Amino acid sequence: MPKTLRSLCAALLLLIAPFATGGEITVAVASNFIKPIEALAPAFSEATGHRVRLSTGSTGKFYAQIQRGAPFDVFLSADEARPARLEDEGFAVQGSRFIYAIGRLVLWQAETNRDIRPDVLRIADGGRVAVANPVTAPYGTAAAAAIENLGLSATLASRLVQGENIGQTFQFVATGNAAFGFVAWSQVSQNGALIRGSGWLVPADLHPPIRQAATLLSRSKDKPAARDFMVFLKSETARQIIRQHGYDTE
């Protein structure tokens, strides 16, 4: 861990240490957020002594699982609508919800050093285009909106291949099963720069904002480790890690 983050973690430890009891939590994490959560979890454990189990998948499926009593403590959604619904339905603690990250969408190709523009999708034999399921994955909803606003709905109607979540969508492109894909900027960037393949960062005004909300689930309202994680996620230590992985923060 970089020296700066170690220092921030040490400062955070002074704030959280009185509540730390070495507990364990399970966090349901939208698949777009895998890379940052893999950095956040050990930073949180170092600062608090708590352990974190991660479960990654699509936001829509997690929403349904939580309604059925899935044993999660904290939900890191890829949207803000489902955490709000969970609060209204009594499955999440009222007032615990906040925006932990704001995502960006990118049109991506695995091949490097290519000039990617949306016009490449207008080529009739340009290959398949991967998107996440717009029903269960907010990044899929954003991709569908971008495609429509770019006037590409008819052109791509027979060429779209749908991933269950943004992680699977990325894999379709990375493995060559799709020529292009609308994926999360965080999957292909680091510190604001593209680190693999070629991409076109989709202008934010072409799709609804991808505001990702965290919420504390009701079953864990009295669990110190879960509450400490929510505090940590708002800390500058966490916010710095999140920004390094291609997200904006509020």
Automatic annotation (TrEMBL):
SUPFAM superfamilies: Periplasmic binding protein-like II (SSF53850). Keywords: Metal-binding, Molybdenum, Signal. Residues 1-22 form the signal peptide. GO terms for biological process: molybdate ion transport. InterPro entries: AvModA-like_subst-bd, ModA, ModA/WtpA. Gene3D superfamilies: Periplasmic binding protein-like II. One of its GO terms (molecular function) is metal ion binding. The keyword Metal-binding applies. Pfam families: SBP_bac_11. Molybdate binds at residues 59, 166. It comes from the Bacteria. Belongs to the bacterial solute-binding protein ModA family. This is Molybdate ABC transporter substrate-binding protein. It comes from Denitromonas halophila.
